[in-house]
Automatic annotation (TrEMBL):
Residues that span the membrane, as ranges: 20-38
Protein name per the record: Uncharacterized protein
Keyword Membrane: yes
Keywords: Membrane, Transmembrane, Transmembrane helix
Source species of the chain: Candidatus Wolfebacteria bacterium GW2011_GWE2_44_13
Amino acid sequence: MKRYLHTIRQSDEKTRFRWLIGLSVTATLIVVIVWVLYMRAFVFTNTRENSTEEVRIGFWPVLKNGLTITGSSIGRGFETMLSGMPQFGRRTSTIQNPD
């Protein structure tokens, strides 16, 4: 394994970039698969054992709600960050060349 990593380190830039992309895609897929399995195992199960009705929440509605909450949180963060910018702009001056 050490020797194989050494050959990758000594290879050209294009080969190292291909390995970087390949390993990044692989790691992302593993994380997404583990996340989906977690969601199916713990979130979408019926918590009441003696309940007669089966309540299942769909994957896509949960994902949509999560993205909506995350998007609004990011939006509020940008609004807060950008609200201070006009004050920064007032403290700067513009120099114009005379005609």
